[in-house]
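Issue 218. Parser rejects a valid record. Input:
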Amino acid sequence: MKISNETKIGLMAIIGIAMLVIGFNYLKGNGVFKKERNIYAVYSDVQGLKKSNPVVINGLQIGRIENLDGGKDMKRIVVTVSLTKDVNIPKNSLALINPNLLGSPSLEIQLGNDKTYLQNGDTLLTTLSGGAFDEAMKLINPVLYEVRNAVQSLDSLMTTVTGVFDTPTKNNIKSMIRNLNLATASFVVTSESVQKLMDTQSGALAASLSNMKIFTANLNSNNKSLDSIMQNTKAFSRNLAAINLQRTLDTLNLAIDNFKAGSEKLNSKDGSLGLLLNDKTLYNNLEGTSNKINILLDDIRVHPKRYVSFSIFGKKDKGNYITAPLIDDTLKVVKQQ
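Output the parser choked on:
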């Protein structure tokens, strides 16, 4: 098969264009056949950073700036970093822009110490750099550069303090100082009161100590009386201890037992008193005897001549014996009265 010259020219042109694109990308640092990772950094000022600017770690280029996008408001500029080398970048690493007075700026990554690493699509932590003027100042006069940094730090500190101590906070601080002054004044008054209390001539503490001294002197003068009271108390306690309390309790228990035994005998039918108190037959006999005595006394009262005769010519009354007790008329009279 014969290839025409037009076909050969077209193939040569395609190959040339491909070689031109590959060489251009190679010169720009773009990998053509290598898969790259992209990470991101966000700045408010990129300080002249452009596409294809190098990204370095410790002076060694590990990638390039792939893209910069600030949106419509241009307040947050997202920088896309394309990594051409397979490196481990800790998550707490910082990305800062290093301006160059003689060339294009570069993006420097300062490695952190985290054990976890950034993956494809993660975002770097960023920090602001001083710019080209700071670099020139550092080279020309390092002392003046450090002084300027110290002044900037002091200014940032004062700005922070001013922002923190707003009007309510300042008022609170004034109130605290006022309360502290009041507390100090109260402390002065308290110290004066304490001083008056501790005064050896007119202080209350001195008076209390004087009274205590008088009291102890009185105790010392009455020491003999106190000793006598203590001796009497000791003798009383000794006599109380000498009482045979156990023997008294034993005697009391014996008396209680005897009384209990006597009451038991009274309740039983063994003794005379027990039979007298508990036997119904004796009660009935006594009641019958009492009834007969009443009949006899009534008969004597009604027929005295039957039993006693005082007349020589009289005779004993016979018959009409009383067989039942008569009604006592004296009881009726007593009841009526």
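Fixed in the parser; the record now loads. Residues 167-197 form the longest helix (31 residues).
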